[in-house]
Amino acid sequence: MKKELIIGIFVSFIFLSVFGGFLYFSRSSPFLAQVSSLQKENENLREIENEIANLEVEISNLKKSIKEALSLKDELSSMEKENSKFKEALEKRLSTLEEKLKREKEKVKEIKKEKICEKKEKDLPGHRVIFNEICWMGDEESPANEWVEIKNISKEEIDLSGWQILNKNQRLKIIFEEGTKILPNEILLLKRGDDFSGAIKNSDEALFLFDKDCNLEDEVFATPSWPAGDNFSKRTAERKNDLSWQTSQNPGGTPGKENSSGFVEIEKKEEEKESKISLSFPKEIFANQEFQVSLSVSDLESETYDIKISILKISDESEQKRTISEISQTGEEWQSSYKYLTKVFSGDSFSGNFKLRVSQKYQDFEGEAEISAKVRQSDNKKVVAEFKDEIKVKGLEIAMTSEPQTKEETPSSNETQLQQKQIKNLLLNYSFEEEGESPEIAANWTQDPTANATIRINELAKSGSWSMKQKDITTSYGREFISSPIPIKPGENYKFGGWYYLLNPGNNADPTAYRIFIQICWLTEDKSIIGECYPSQGQKLSTFANWKEVQIEKDAPPNAAYAQLKVRAKRDSSDIPKTSIYWDEMFVIGPER
To answer: What global pTM score does this model have?
Structure first.
């Protein structure tokens, strides 16, 4: 029983131990959970602390960058201020230099004005450099094709810097540029249009050559005629070795070359027959009328001959005769009658008819004129027969249309004169023969200054010597030339236009790819423009390398007092080749105010 008691106590002890352990662990499990949670929070805290530390580093770096940026901004601001000051200084310096340049140019201009030489009464020529040959009459192409030769007859090279050539009225003025030199026996050719502007008059003229100190080197006078040269045959005046003058043996002279041996006119033998020439023509003509003349010439040598028949007027300015007519053998193809019709006939006689008319640009001319006929040999240009007489040019013929009138209804001559209107070309300098401030500028016209895009030029003309050229036609209507305002009558009808010559640029170009504007612009009494110029659309061109007329009509508005002609040209696109266009014989025809 004692043994059983001991076993029971031992079993009870084990039971109590197990039960107590259970109770203990049951009470301690929340604490364990708290310990586990705390460990996790510590880990999270360490992560946050690490993140904060990283952020602090990043913020510190960012602050450094901001500080550097602010420093750079200050530096840039300082540089901008310096640049601004530098720019201001440069602009100020540039302005100062421009003003200085302007003043220096004015000084040079004034100095040049002050140093234009004058012929003194007792001046004796030095004759180191002389006038060697003078083409005072022009050539067969144009009276404007004048030129002068000078020659160094000394034994030394001469510096021509600052030397001057002047004519009597100083409209012809050549001042040689710095560094211009002429060798012994060297000939220097100076052409009108290239080397000088201003005309050499055919009479009552003089030319002077001065060195840089205005010492007279040479002189020649036309009082009233030149000492040599011939206007008919276009033979120039040449200098001989003894410094006297002779007429050149060659028509057209010897430009840039040694002079000829001189022209010697062989006296006719007594038995030699003198050629006979006659011209039948109306004694009075209208300026816009075509008329027929009949020429007869006989007792010639059996050769081939050229013919020229011209109407000439006296130029008010130079007292030179100017050709104002055109001639045609068929009435279809016309040319300036300043030029000869070449190789018209062969043999010892001729009789034939020709058509004449006053050139359009001279149709405002009224008064007495001269009609001339010349026959020359084709090979040597010798004039063998010449005819001259007077002819009267009246105003434009007016085509009057009205109902037939009975004898009783016929108005008196005074009433008829009142009914008629003075119709004429109102444009001034419509053929560009009169130069403005320079040879490239036409008087009474405003030209586009862009790179000399529109210039007065004497390389191609419908009649006369000059035309207006628009170079390198662009893809816009920007380049233009405009006439000076002309007085007109409100409500009247006006025809306006002109003649153009479009150069063919090649590359299979199409003329219809080029367009022109010829517009009339109406102006009020105070010369304010009325609405838009007419027409508002350009027109395509139709032909290359041929003179073509463009004519438009328009009634003047009731409030118009003046009109202007505006001329422009363009090509349709940049793919179309550039070319140039010439203009001549522009017109605004109608009653004048």
So the answer is: 0.43
